[in-house]
């Protein structure tokens, strides 16, 4: 009989599962547990994700205005693009470039100008 009971990971209450794979006593407990877990993970990643998201937003808005335009390094920094926080390196026809989600920064020759490329 004791094997029929499970312990809810959120409230530590004993309950009899209605399904074999049920882990929580109620759906509300499952939702709260998973939301709390996701919030903690997001807080741990915030120091990195925030600059990437801001950079992505700015690159997206600039690219939408003129996809072929080049921008000076200081202009992009002023808009919030963080050159140290790209979230991956991607292969393009221009070689490997730092990327922020679906946008990449291509440095133009030996200048301080960059082109925003949509991947």
Number of strands: 7
Helix content: 25-40%
- Rounded to an integer, what's the Rg over CA atoms? 23 Å
Question: Helices and strands, in N-to-C order?
Answer: EEHEHEEEE
Structural class category: alpha+beta
* Distance, first to last CA: 58 Å
| Tally of structural domains | 1
Based on CA inertia axes, which overall geometry fits? elongated
Query: What's the story with the biggest beta sheet?
Result: 5 strands, antiparallel
- The spatial strand order of the largest sheet comes to 3-7-6-5-4
Residues in β-strands, percent: 15-25%
Query: How many H/I helical runs?
Result: 2
Poorly predicted runs of 5 or more residues: none
- What does the average pLDDT come to? 94
3D architecture notes:
- The protein is α+β, with helices and mostly antiparallel strands and 119 residues long.
- The protein is elongated.
- It has one domain.
- The longest helix has 39 residues.
- It has a five-stranded antiparallel β-sheet with strand order 3-7-6-5-4.
- 39% of the residues lie in helices and 24% in strands.
- The chain contains two helices and seven strands, in the order E-E-H-E-H-E-E-E-E.
- Strand 1 and strand 2 form a beta hairpin.
- It starts with 5 loop residues before the first strand and ends with a strand.
């Amino acid at each position: 009989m004791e094997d029929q009971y499970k312990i809810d990971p959120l409230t530590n209450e004993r309950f009899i599962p209605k399904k074999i794979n049920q882990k929580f006593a109620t759906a509300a407990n499952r939702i709260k547990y998973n939301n709390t877990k996701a919030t903690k993970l997001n807080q741990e990643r915030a120091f990195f994700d925030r600059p990437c998201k801001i950079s992505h937003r700015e690159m997206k808005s600039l690219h939408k205005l003129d996809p072929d335009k080049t921008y000076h390094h200081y202009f992009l920094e002023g808009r919030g693009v963080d050159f140290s926080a790209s979230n991956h390196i991607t292969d393009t026809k221009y070689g490997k470039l730092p990327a922020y989600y679906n946008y990449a920064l291509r440095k133009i020759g030996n200048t301080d100008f960059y082109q925003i490329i949509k991947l």
